[in-house]
Design brief:
The complex is a heterodimer of chains A (306) and B (211).
Chain A: H1 2-12, H2 14-28, H3 38-48, H4 59-77, H5 93-113, H6 118-149, H7 154-160, H8 166-186, H9 205-208, H10 215-239, H11 246-270, H12 279-302
Helix pairs in contact in A: 2-10, 2-11, 3-10, 4-5, 4-10, 5-6, 6-7, 6-8, 6-12, 8-10, 8-12, 10-11
Chain B: H1 2-18, H2 22-43, H3 50-78, H4 90-114, H5 120-139, H6 143-164, H7 170-198, H8 203-206
Helix pairs in contact in B: 1-2, 1-4, 1-5, 2-3, 2-6, 3-7, 4-5, 5-6, 6-7
The chains are: A mainly alpha (306), B mainly alpha (211).
């Protein structure tokens, strides 16, 4: 039952998440803002359109957005949504999770390289650099949480690190902080990349999808929003203690997810986009925080903190 | 609570090695003073002694208020608003300081095996704070960043004494305070002289000093 709800939530909620972010940005800028459901209207409008495909592309270009969306959805099935029980779970699945996301990203990259546009090649180069910097940080955080609970599946790792005592609470909060930076990186949000920009010098993700149109563009937007929702559910479940009443747990989950969206919106309206040369050091913060998380867990397990 | 505070202290050092604004350094120094004050309050058992009063004055009044205020005043007076100009790219700066943190934690892991009554988290973070402070002194070009790196090194030493001895003797805190006082005093003198003579607050000017 809860698994069906999980899948429905994954399918339905992503655009609501980005809709909340956009609304918060609009309010902070003194505008009224688009309706919360605007992104759904855009998505269905894109679905009805036909597409224009460049003559220089091959079948990869047509395949890439669908593969990207499929692998992101598949990765989402490993993530616990409302309670600590995901749809799929097996030993060591946090590695599958990370590589499914990387697989989707790989296809979106070769899809845009396929257009043979040097401008899109530049965007791909940036995207690859930044995700390569973000990946060790993600593994550092998740692996040290796994070490803390001595378990290896993503859902039990998350279930084991709630705020029950000082140390695991601290580790969960630090992990949540690192994963929040990861949301900004993976979702191409403001300190790293501006989703609204069309200035050539600063585009990262937007430049890769310039040639896509119609349903393909819809798929890419959808998988991008889905990725943000997935990481925000990991953060939320790090904070919720397991074993709560299902209704209460669902309620806390939804309100925390909304809070994360609001917080992302506030961050986006409060700080400016970083200069391109400063982005790598911002992303490397994930690894630095992950290092501290790892040290805390190791010190905790070997020579209990005094 | 105190583990949380000490981890926050470590995060401030990572922030310092990644940021490039000179005012962020001063704010971080004030923040570190407040964190040290929290640590002293949480750690202490005797809330009425002279020692405790002294520690509170040292951390809250000196480290968190007077020194940052003084540094801010010098920055405003000498109009040093530009970025801190590290010798190496900022990305490598944060990579190296992360490596320093790894090294510090390795040392603290060894310290658990060797000495039983050392708090490993305190020890690791204080060692890495000291080395990061030195690293900041080495890689930044402006004189004012040098003195701030020195202050961070001093905070690391303060933390180290907290990790080794549970209750800090009065004479140790006097020593720490004297160090800080002389550092700031000399710096103020030195700085105003240089400002009067050269109009530039860069260590490159110092390499061309002649009689």
């Amino acid at each position: 039952m809860i698994q069906i709800l999980n899948v429905l939530f994954l399918l339905a909620a992503p655009f609501l998440f980005t809709g909340i972010i956009n609304r918060i940005k609009a309010i902070a800028a003194g505008r009224k803002g688009a309706p919360l459901l605007q992104q759904y209207y855009d998505f269905f409008r894109l679905m009805k359109k036909s597409e224009v495909i460049s003559t220089s592309t091959s079948f990869i270009f047509k395949l890439a957005p669908a593969i990207c969306l499929a692998s992101t959805l598949f990765a989402g099935l490993f993530v616990p949504i409302f309670t600590h029980r995901p749809v799929l779970s097996l030993e060591g699945d946090f590695i599958i999770f990370a590589y499914l996301l990387a697989f989707g990203k790989f296809f979106s990259i070769i899809g845009s390289l396929d257009t043979a546009s040097s401008f899109e090649g530049m965007g791909c180069s940036r995207e690859v650099t930044f995700s390569a910097l973000a990946e060790p940080g993600f593994f550092m955080v998740i692996a040290s949480l796994a070490f803390l609970g001595q378990v290896t599946s993503l859902s039990s790792i998350i279930a084991n690190s709630y705020i029950n005592q000082e140390l695991s609470g601290m580790i969960a909060l630090l992990g949540a902080f690192a994963l929040f930076i990861l949301i900004l990186v993976e979702g191409c949000r403001i300190p790293v990349d501006d989703p609204n920009t069309h200035l050539e010098l600063t585009m990262i993700h937007e430049v890769m999808i310039l040639d896509n149109s119609g349903p393909d563009l819809g798929f890419i937007l959808y998988s991008n929003a889905l990725k943000m929702l997935i990481f925000s559910s990991i953060i939320t479940n790090l904070i919720i203690p397991p074993g709560l009443n299902i209704l209460l747990s669902v309620f806390i989950f939804i309100s925390l997810t909304g809070l994360i969206a609001v917080f992302t919106g506030i961050i986006e309206s409060a700080i400016a986009r970083l200069r391109m040369t400063h982005v790598p050091q911002f992303i490397f913060l994930i690894t630095s925080v992950g290092l501290i998380v790892a040290a805390c867990t190791i010190l905790f397990n070997f020579g209990e903190l005094r | 609570m105190k583990n949380f505070v000490i981890v926050l202290f470590g995060l401030t050092m990572i922030h310092v090695s990644s940021t490039s604004r000179i005012e962020a350094y001063v704010k971080t120094l004030a923040m570190q003073g407040i964190l040290l004050f929290t640590m002293v309050v949480v750690d202490n058992k005797d809330y009425f002694g002279l020692n405790f009063l002294f520690l509170v004055i040292e951390t809250l009044v000196f480290k968190a208020i007077i020194i940052p205020w003084f540094l801010m005043k010098i920055i405003r007076k000498n109009e040093i608003f530009r970025e801190i100009e590290p010798n190496i790219p900022a990305f490598w700066s944060i990579v190296i300081s992360s490596l320093i943190f790894g090294f510090g934690f390795m040392l603290s892991y060894l310290s658990i095996i060797l000495a039983q009554d050392v708090n490993p988290l305190y020890f690791g973070i204080s060692i890495s704070t000291m080395i990061t402070g030195l690293f900041i002194i080495i890689t930044r070009k402006k004189i004012i960043t040098h003195i701030m790196g020195y202050m961070m090194l001093e905070n690391g030493i303060f933390l180290l004494t907290l990790s080794l001895i549970n209750e800090m003797p009065l004479i140790v805190s006097l020593g720490v305070l004297l160090d800080v006082f002389i550092g700031i005093y000399l710096f103020g003198l030195f700085f105003n002289k240089i400002q009067a003579t050269y109009e530039k607050t860069h260590i490159d000017t110092l390499t061309y000093l002649k009689d």
